[in-house]
Amino acid sequence: MMDEDDDVLIINEDVIVTEFAPDTFAFLRALDGMDQQKIKDSLSPEFNRDSVFRAGESQGKSGSFFFFSHDKNFIIKTMTQSDLDTFRKVFVKYFEHVSSHPNSLLARIYGIYTVQMEDIEPVHLILMGNTKKSNDKMIEHVFDLKGSFINREVKGKNLKNTATLKDLNLLALKKEKFVIYYIFLTFIFSC
Question: Which of 41, 74, 141, 167 could bridge 69 with an S-S bond, Cβ 3.0-4.6 Å?
């Protein structure tokens, strides 16, 4: 489904790339100092060939294909039609939040694209900034949240602060911190 404000690039008669809300994403990229040249340099086929082929060998559990750009500035991931439809529903609120809260910890999304080729199902792609490029000493926890409890826990003790935790880990940490806070308050008020 294409909107009139989407841009269409025809690479050749067999490949068509559609960019969803190009002006809006250009604005979001500019907020974070991401210009077109930086993106082109990061996503250059010449430097990313090996990453793309490695990514094809190690798809995520969801079956999605993703890879990091050679300089680790960006992540490209495939989206299902359902993912795309859901994102379109929340897009305006996402844009309003990120543009009015520049220090938000929400993942930075810099573009949504659909690639169409003859006789092949369209492929939807999301371009995101790599949120793990920050100083690891400043990170307390990293989460990949999906809003589900099915297979959404990383098992193990003493995980590194940069280990990517999931939905059930977040709930457990929240409960643990609440219990500690409650014990502290109980102690303070019993003195």
Answer: 74
Helices marked H in 101-164 — which ranges?
A: none
If residue 7 lies in a helix (H) or strand (E), which one and from where to where? Answer: strand 7-12
Q: Residue 126 pairs with which residues in a beta bridge?
A: 77, 112
Domain borders along the chain are: 1-132, 134-191
Contact 155, 132 (CB under 8 A): no
CA pair distance 146, 167, nearest whole angstrom: 7
Six-digit token string for 101: 């809260």
- What CATH number belongs to 1-132? 3.30.800.10
Q: Rounded to an integer, what distance in angstroms lies between the CA atom of residue 89 and that of residue 155?
A: 33
Residues paired with 113 in a beta bridge: 19, 125
Q: Grade residue 42 by pLDDT with cuts at 50, 70 and 90.
A: confident
User: If you count them, how many residues does the chain have?
Assistant: 191
Place of tokens 């930075």: 108
Beta bridge partners of 7: 19
The string of pLDDT tens digits covering residues 50-109 is 776 666 544 555 667 777 888 888 888 888 898 899 999 999 999 999 999 988 878 899
